[in-house]
Here is the input.
Amino acid sequence: MILAQPNEPSERGFMRPLSHLELLLTLVFLQISQSFLSSEHLVQRSVFNFILLFVVFSALRTLSQSKTWTFIALAAGVLGYALISYSEVARSVWSLVISDLCFLVVFSLLLLALGESVFSKGLSDLNRIIGAVCIYFIIGLLFALLYSLLETFQPESFSLSMYENDAAGHQDRFGQLLYFSNVTLTTLGYGDIQPVSRPARSFATLEALIGQLYLAIVIARLVGVHIANASRTRE
Here is the structure.
C-alpha cells in the first residue's frame, strides 16, 4: 500500500476546493446591487429581494453538513422572502419585522457554520481565508438587520433620510443602515449617518470594536499562517 506524502497536493490545505467562494461572490453582489436598485420601483425591489433569497440558497451549501441548521435556514429564508412579498400588498409593518428576524436567524446560523469551518483544526488554506472574509461581510449584514429592528421599535435611533413604513421604505432604510453598518465595521466614520439613541450608539460602538479586532486578530493570523505554510511547501 502506498502512503501519501505530507507534501502531496491532496494534503495541501491550499489545494482544497474553494467551497466558500460562491457565498463570497453572492455577498459582494448583494452589497453592490442594493446601491443600484431603487426602492421606489416594485420591479427593482423584487429583484433585490430575489438576490437576498439567492444569498440564502448559497448559504445552504455552507450549512449542508447539518440537516437541522439547513432546514431552519431554508424555512426562515423562504418565510422572510414570503413576508416581504406579502408586505407589498398588505403594507404590514409586522410582516417586515418578522422578515428581518427570519434573515437574522439565517445569517446567524451561517455565521456559526462558517466559524466552525474557519476555526477548525487544520492548515490555514485559501478557502479558510475566503470563509473568514465571508464572516466579515455577514457581521455587517447582521448589524444592519439589528439596526433595522431597532429603528422600527425606537424610531429616529439613527439620523436617516425620511422613509415610509411600507415595503419601499423598509428597503430604503435597510440600504441606508447596511451602508452605515459597513462604514462602522470598517471604522471609516463618514458621519453622514449617525447613531442618535443610546442603544444605537452602544451597538455601533460594539460593531466598530468587533471590526477592528477581527481584522487584527483573525484575518491577519490566517493570512500569515497561510503564507508561512505555502513557503514551507516550496522548500
Helices lie at 21-36, 42-63, 67-90, 93-118, 126-153, 167-185, 198-234. Confidence is low (pLDDT under 50) at residues 1-15.
